[in-house]
Structure formats: C-alpha cells, structure tokens
Write a structure and sequence with these properties.
By secondary structure, the chain is of the alpha/beta class. The chain has a domain at 3-178 and 218-241 and 275-293: 3-Layer(aba) Sandwich (Rossmann fold), CATH 3.40.50. Helix content is 38%, strand content 19%. The protein contains nine helices and twelve strands. The strands form three sheets. It has a seven-stranded parallel β-sheet, sandwiched between helices. It has a three-stranded mixed β-sheet with strand order 7-9-11. Helix 2 links the parallel strand 2 (27-32) and strand 3 (56-60). Helix 3 runs parallel beside helix 4. The chain is globular, with a radius of gyration of 19 Å. Residues 5-241 form the NAD-dependent epimerase/dehydratase domain. It comes from Desulfotruncus arcticus DSM 17038. This is NAD dependent epimerase/dehydratase family protein. InterPro entries: Epimerase_deHydtase, NAD(P)-bd_dom_sf.
Amino acid sequence: MNKCLVTGAAGFIGSHLVEKLVSNGFYVYGIDSFTNYYNQEQKKRNIEVYINQPNVAFYSADILSADLSLFAKDIDYCFHLAGEPGVRLSWGQTFQNYLHLNVLTTQKLLEFLKNISIKKFVYASSSSVYGICNLPMQEASLPKPISPYGVTKFAAEQICHTYWHNYQIPTVALRYFTVYGPRQRPDMAFSKMIRCLKEGELFYVYGDGRQTRDFTYVEDIVEATISAAKSDARGEVINIGGGSRANLLKIIEILQKISGGKLRFKHIEGQKGDPVDTLADLEKAKKYLNYKSKTSLEQGLRSQFQWFDDLLDT
C-alpha cells in the first residue's frame, strides 16, 4: 500500500485530496496546524469525512515544530498543500505568517525529505505568482507577482526547484487557478456570495466586477494533483485551470439563477495585489498529466450551493 503525507489536510482542497486518496487505496498521514485564518469549526467539519477511516493517521501540528520522522520517514508521496492563503491579508505585519507557513515550512519538508527516496513531492502553488501577465498565462512566462502572498508562493516554487536540482527530489509545482466547490473557505468570493444570498446580506464587489478569473472546480484540482504524483514530470511547474473564465457579475447572475433569489451588492474600491484577469494555458497539463477539466462552472456552483444548503440544515 502506497503511503503519503498530505499537509493542510483539514483545509478546503486538502480534505478533498485526503478523501480521494483514501478511496483510491492510499494510506494517508494528514497534518494541519489549524491556524486562525478562518473559523476552525469548518476545518473540523472538513476532516469528519475521513478521520475515522482505518487508512488515515491525522496530526494537529505546525510543520516547523513537528517531528517529521513520526509520519514522513516511510512515505512514497508528499502533497504539500499547507500554507497561509489570501492576497489581501498578506500586506503589513501579517506578512511574517506567510513567510512562516508558505516558505519556511516548504524548506523544512524538503530538507527532511532529501535523505528519503520518495516518488514525488507535489507542491500546491498559485496563479498569483504571475501577477500582471499576457493571457493565457504560460509557465514559461517570467513571474512578476504583485502581492506579498504571490511572492511567497513563487519563493516556495523556487525552493522546490533547488531541491530537485541539487538533491534530485522529484518535485512538481502545480499553479492552481481560483479553486471553488464544496468546503470552500468562507473568506472566498463564492462562499460570501452564497451566504449573502441565503441570509439577505449585502455583498461587496471589489472594483467594477468585470475582472475575470479562471475558475477551477475542486474535484478537477484533486484529480490533477494525484495525476501529478503518478506522472513522469520532474522539476516541472504546471498550470491547473478550469477553462471556466468569467467575471464576478456573471457569477452573480448564475448564482441568482441557481438560488432563485436576488443578491444585494455594492461596488467598493478594488484591492491591491489582485490581478485584473487570469486564464491558464493548459498545454503542459495536457502533456504531462493528460488533464482536462470535467466540471462546468454552473455544475460546480450548483454543487457548492447545495453543500452550503446542506450545511445550514445540520
């Protein structure tokens, strides 16, 4: 039985990944530090889907202070999803959290794993590394992140590359493009929109609402992440997008159709560090991972809306 370590295992994407790995016959060591970035109760709900499975061992710990030999010395794969998310909070004094959780933890993991023969180290990076870039965003483009968050994600990518070059750790960095779906973090736009629709609250739209994102459904992200672990890719950076580029006004229109309600919203000043548009070039993902997004934007939004609905009923 293949064994793997998943960091950030109680998070939005991490919990889906652990659930899928267990269903595919992997033994999973999960670790999460339960930071206070958002309500820990949601993370506790996230792990309920797998915590009692016989093929899971879960640890609540900070990677920097944890004894990695307890759960990483005999693994075949490492999926490194732990980190401090969010562009808007990465400015000012909180930047130290991003250094701690995005950069230093990545270096510690790789330093530990350099003496262990693993099949793949998959790092969850972000489209935020690109900053302002011609569309579609290609991996060969020179990253010019415009937020401290993006800087730390790019720094961690480069750390992966150095350990691949010098110690031959088989790393792959996946640049996720705006992930959505059930269990999405409550600070993210879709979660906020759905909650405001359900509770009649006012939703704040940053800027004119015409900025676009390449939205990617979480199940497609998970499939691509597992494919990266099994692939022949080494030392590569690969985009993972959904091919569902839309602006926020279009998202509001779809969610109103799904809910049958009317979203009250107000335009406010745009946020520093947010790119105007994103769109992934997926040629490398097709080449190395045989990747193709399977979930349409409306399908994915319906699933996320239903998940929130079910959550209110519990």
